[in-house]
Structure formats: structure tokens, C-alpha cells
Design brief:
The protein is of the alpha/beta class. The chain has a single domain, classed as 5'-nuclease (Rossmann fold). It has a 5-stranded parallel β-sheet. Strand 4, helix 7 and strand 5 form a beta-alpha-beta unit. Helix 5 packs across helix 6. The chain is globular.
């Protein structure tokens, strides 16, 4: 079975619009949560039922948490992206969570499933990891 981390973008579309239900129920992926993704989801919560849905995710699927090595590597990758692409500090802040997700997936051998491919593709140019780009129907 294929390990996969769902990016925040996939969860948001699934929760808000019910998208990807068939793909997620197909059983092609053994889902692992990313502590980073769960934090992003919590950050956007406005209602108790949203928090409950995230807590259910956290209790039903193992959580991958970035290690010290991953945190340090994420800084190096962001520095390289800044140098190569001239990204602003704000852009680098926004990318940091994606880098942590990518490196956590890489360390565990999991695929990242996302709808937001452009940033993850830039990260892959510096550090390889497995990526599947889903699109909104």
C-alpha cells in the first residue's frame, strides 16, 4: 500500500465541497497526517465542528512530525529558493510549511497529494520527493 500525506489544499476541498471522496475511499493510499497540515487546518478553524473534524483526523491516522534534522534542512532549502528565485521574506514564510510537509513525506517514503503544485514543484527542484498533483473537477 502507498503511504500518502494529504496537503492542506486537499483537506480543504474535501471538507468544504466533498471533493475527492471517491479517491480517498478507493483505498489506494495509506494516509498519514502531517503535524504541519493539522496545524494549518487548526489555524483556519472558526467553528467547533471544524475543530472536531480535525481532532477526528488526528485520532484516526498516524501523525508525522518534522524532526530537528527536517527543520534544519527546511531552512537550507528556503535559503536556496531565496537565492535562486529571489523570493520575498513573506513568500518564504508561506513556503516553509510546504517544505516541512515535503521533507516529512520524503523521510517516511510517503507521497504528497496536493492541489497546489507550483510551490511543491519548486521545492522538488532542490530536494526530490514523491508528489501527486490532483486537480479540482
Amino acid at each position: 500500500m502507498t503511504l500518502a500525506i494529504l496537503d492542506t489544499s486537499v483537506y480543504l476541498e474535501h471538507f468544504r465541497k466533498g471533493l475527492f471522496k471517491k479517491e480517498l475511499q478507493a483505498g489506494d493510499f495509506l494516509i498519514r497526517n502531517s503535524a504541519v497540515v493539522l496545524a494549518e487546518l487548526y489555524r483556519g478553524c472558526r467553528r467547533a465542528e471544524e475543530r472536531e473534524a480535525i481532532e477526528e483526523l488526528a485520532s484516526n491516522f498516524p501523525i508525522l512530525t518534522p524532526t530537528e534534522r527536517i527543520w534544519l534542512e527546511s531552512g537550507r532549502i528556503l535559503s536556496q529558493l531565496s537565492e535562486k528565485k529571489g523570493y520575498s521574506c513573506e513568500k518564504l514564510r508561506n513556503l516553509h510549511f510546504d517544505v516541512l510537509i515535503a521533507l516529512s513525506a520524503r523521510a517516511s517514503g510517503a507521497w504528497v497529494l496536493t492541489l497546489d503544485g507550483s510551490d511543491f514543484e519548486e521545492i522538488r527542484k532542490i530536494r526530490a520527493f514523491k508528489l501527486i498533483l490532483w486537480s479540482r473537477p
